[in-house]
Amino acid sequence: MYSVLEQIKKMYPTMTPVEKRIAKFILNQPEEVTRMAVKKIAEASKTSDAAVVRFAKRIGLSGIKELKIELVKELTEEPDTGLSRIINLNNDGDETIFQKVFHNTLRSLYNTEKIIDYQALTVAARMISKASRTLVFGVSDSGNTARDIEQKLQRLNFNAYCTSDRTLMLERLKTANEKELLFVISAKGHSKEVIDILRFAKEQSLTVIVLSQQNMNHLTRYADISIEVSSEEANVVDINMTNRISQLMVIDVLFFYICKLVKDNPSFKKLNIIQK
Prior knowledge:
Layout: H1 4-11, H2 17-28, H3 30-33, H4 38-44, H5 49-58, H6 64-76, H7 94-115, H8 118-130, E1 133-137, H9 141-155, E2 160-163, H10 166-174, E3 180-186, H11 192-203, E4 207-213, H12 217-220, E5 225-229, H13 241-262, H14 266-271
Parallel strand pairs: 1-2, 1-3, 3-4, 4-5
Helix pairs in contact: 4-5, 7-13, 8-13, 9-13, 10-11
């Protein structure tokens, strides 16, 4: 379900000039790439061996070997559904809309699994478990995800506060100390409120975790820890469907990571959240 070519196309606008040369070569000659050594790909794209390896990792793969394996799968296997990702309300029947939403969601989860930074997840869980209070901020659809992690942390008797109100969060941040942290959840970061909160938190020297869609550099530059997920929205505007599902999956993973960190605490055992 992971598509090397689709991932390259999606990330292309944010790539560096060197990355774009490699991307163009792979997009134009995918079959040849599967049979080429790193050195040959570098020569053909007028880059370097190291740049090709970095490119593979940039699109969520472990290296050039995995890139070629995934390309072979993509070029030889039958398409999963043959369905377009675009939902057409004029022509699509009810079953087709269901299938498109279903498979777009699966694709988003699968691609998130490919690009996720496991170390960032582990560090984020450790930071949250040690924080005296976690301040959670998200607006619009991401506000629902923000409230989900607030509820999960409170279920563990952690001190957590969530709001989608810029003014309320700014007031909280003004009195926050170095033992507290800010967790910001945003799909694309288009909201001025999100940027304002992140900028103010960094001015206050607070630890910041950001959960966002892939390649949101204008958000992640404020983050101490950045967790990125995939999104497969094609023609749906301002409603982050697949992105929301990927966000919630990450929140569930963080929840279990935190449970693992505190599982030996007597207070956690009393909660009886996870039965043996």
